[in-house]
Amino acid sequence: MAPTSTISPPSGRKAQATYRALVENTHAVIAETGGFSGELVAERARLSAATFYAYFPSKDEALAAVLDGVLGDLVDRTIDVFDIERLLEDGLVAVVGRAVAVGFEVFTSSALIFRLALARLPESRTIRHVYRDHQARAVEALERFVRLGRAAGKLSASDEAATTTALLVALQGINNPLLLHRSATDASVAAVEEMIEHLLDPEHVRA
Q1: pLDDT (tens digit, 9 = 90+) per residue, 93-115?
Q2: Angle separating helix axes 125-151 and 160-172, nearest 10 degrees
Q3: Are residues 134 and 181 in the same domain?
Q4: Model pLDDT, residue 5
């Protein structure tokens, strides 16, 4: 299933196919080289440079479209993990472990994309828009998880709003060079998981 997008693609089947090809190839070039140009992306997609700039007037617009897909995937998968039914059936340790694993997978595989996007964040309104919209969606879902978890007696967070904010910050903090590329059994990874567990339920003790 395609990740949830906050950027509307162009209308028309052919235009949408061209748009997807340009976004996918921009993503691929960044992942391989750490940067990109409209000309290189167009060549890889077997399109003209003029076509690239017809769809993306600037490189920031193309980068925002790539980031939109990556963040859409990250938020979709995070929302799927932080589901009240999963908490009731599998418990807090399992839910947090899956959430951390999702974060490591996405942040590691898209590290160069995040690096480029963060560097352009102060200058690009479109990139800021993508970040804000996906963050708002994540906050809404995590607030619901915390609220329902408390109501079910599975979480003991004293302040739902503060806990939601801290949870999002902790999950975003996985995107850190000190943690990326470590194994699932690394002590630092386990410490991050225990920190999040404690945030959601200060009374929780691992078996």
Answers
A1: 999 999 999 999 999 999 999 99
A2: 130
A3: yes
A4: 81
Q: Containing domain of residue 48, as a range?
A: 11-57
Residue 91: inside a domain: yes
Cα 78 versus chain centre, distance: 8
The C-alpha atoms of residue 28 and residue 141 are separated, in whole angstroms, by: 30
Within a domain: 191 = yes
Inter-helix orientation angle 111-120/13-33, to 10°: 100
Residue 207 inside a domain? The answer is: no
Q: How far is CA 207 from the centre of its chain?
A: 30
Do 138 and 163 belong together in one domain? yes
* pTM strictly above 0.85: yes
* Helix H or strand E encompassing 70: helix 59-81
Is residue 95 domain-shared with residue 150, that is, in the same domain?
yes
Angle at which helix 125-151 crosses helix 111-120, to 10 degrees, equals 120
Ramachandran region, residue 58 (left: φ > 0; alpha: ψ -120 to 50; beta: rest): beta
Q: Provide the pLDDT confidence category of residue 184 given band limits of 50, 70 and 90.
A: low
**Same domain flag for 53 and 68:** no
Q: How far apart are CA 14 and CA 18, in angstroms?
A: 6
